[in-house]
Amino acid sequence: MKKFSLFALIYLVVVTSSAQTQLPAVQLSTLKGETISSTALLNDKVPVVISFWSTICKPCIEELNAFKDQWAKWQKEVNFQLVAVSTDDARSVARVRGFAASREWPFTILLDKNQDFKRALNVNSIPQLYIIGTDGKIVYSHIGYTPGSETKVLEVLKGL
Amino acid sequence: MKQNIIHICLILFIILISIQSIYAQGNLSGSFETNSIYYVKDSKPGIVAPDDKFGSDNYFKLDYRHRKFSAGVQYEAYLPVLQGLPSTLRNSGLVFKYASFRDSNFSVTAGDFYEQFGNGLIFRAYEERAIGLNTAVEGVRLAYSFRNLIHVKGIAGRSREFMDKATSNIKAAGVSVDIASLLKLENSTADAAVNMINRYVSYAGQEPINPNVQAYSFNINWNVHAFSLQGEYAYKSKDNSVYTNNRNKDGSALLLEIGYNTPGFGSLLTLRRLEYMQFGTTRGITGIGLDLNYLPALTKQHSYSLAVLNPHNTMGNGETGGQLDIQYNLPQGSVTGGKYGMQLSLNASTYYNLQGDVINGYDFFATGKTKYYQDINLDIEKRFSTSMLAHLFYANQQFNPVIIGKESSLYKSHIVAGDLRWQPTTKNSFRFELQHLWSGDYLKNWAAALIEFSAAPSFTCFIGDMYNYGDSNIHYYRLGSSYTFSRTRIALNYGRNREGLICAGGVCLYMPAYTGLNLSIASSF
Question: Could you give phi then psi for residue B75, rounded to 5 degrees?
Answer without folding.
Answer: -105, 130
